[in-house]
Design goal:
The chain contains two helices and eight strands. The chain is an alpha/beta fold and 138 residues long.
């Protein structure tokens, strides 16, 4: 058994996944729109191109996602997606990409526990932590 994060977007899932693929090296495993399912007749999403279910891999982790059903988006609160990476230069690059167009919550810098650490809310409303600690296997 394993637990995986499930992100919900405000009609931005396709755009977000493409961004993560480009800037985080994510591998998109699948994207299924409402129009591709038996729910096509029942669902009336705010955007007809909304995603019903998507999956991607970042490193060895899987992240699942969708667009909120019928415009019922609620911004996430109290949750971060954490990236653990050994390479500080690559971690800072990822952090900067995630912060671009979003909000820096804690600037990326050396801390007492890591060579580099930062927190940001990306332009899609997802909150991220990037932690660079070569002693912890990524």
């Amino acid at each position: 058994m394993r637990a995986v994060p499930y992100l919900t977007f405000n009609s931005q899932c396709r755009e977000a996944f493409a961004y993560y693929e480009k800037h985080l090296g994510a591998e998109i495993l699948s994207i299924m729109g409402y129009e591709d399912t038996p729910m096509a007749q029942e669902a009336t999403p705010a955007n007809p191109n909304d995603v019903m279910h998507a999956a991607m891999k970042i490193g060895s982790s899987t992240i699942l996602a969708s667009d909120a059903f019928n415009g019922g988006y609620v911004a996430p609160a109290g949750v971060f997606v954490a990236i653990q990476i050994a390479d500080k230069v690559e971690g800072e690059r990822m952090f900067n990409a995630l912060a671009e167009g979003g909000e820096v919550i804690m600037p990326f810098e050396k801390t007492f526990w890591a060579e580099g650490f930062g927190m940001a809310c990306d332009k899609f409303g997802v909150r991220w932590m990037v932690n660079c600690d070569p002693s912890v296997e990524a």
